[in-house]
Fold this protein.
Amino acid sequence: KTKDNVFVNVVISVQYEAIAKAAYDAYYRLAKPEVQIQAYVFDVVRSTLPRMDLDESFSSKEDLATAVKSHLDETMSSYGWHICKALVTDINPDQRVKMSMNEINASRRLREANKEKAEADKIVAVKAAEADAESKYLSGVGVARQRQAIVGGLQDSILEFSGEIHGTTPKDVMDLLLVTQYFDMLKDIGATNTNTLFIGHAPSQVADLQKSLETGLMKGLK
């Protein structure tokens, strides 16, 4: 029985030979030396195995074999026998214990696999979030540069138009540009295959739209 109260069957093979100088003792002191060896093996196993857990007994087969050989060699040499080798060939617990051990190992490996999968999912989520943030940042930079270019182009157009045609003010140029842009927008809407779109087109509504656009652009210029 192991330290954790598991009963196991231990199979040990012992290789022994008679000592040439003690042949008389080997053949006359013991009638059946294999029975005596077996008894000593049982004694060593019963005294050594209870100090080990089941898992430790599997990993310490060599230690158990060394203990058996050392004890047998010391004891049997006085009877004219030399122990050549002691081998622990098998440690066999109950079948139910084997099944439990397999289930424990399977559960542990499944837990480790789930942990690794969770870590992988976490990395993917973090990288996706970082990529999304970077994409939005670059998109914002692009929109800002586009608007800056539009405002700069309008400033240049206003200054050039005002310089070439005397008597015009920047406001006059802005009104003309806004009306032109408005008609271009109507042209683009008419050229696309879209559903019906109702747009107010009374002169007063055009003026209101022009005023709203002018206010927005002036804020951008500031």
In short: The beta strands are 8-18, 81-93. The CA atoms of residues 160 and 166 lie 11 Å apart. Residues 95-164 form the longest helix (70 residues). The mean pLDDT is 79.
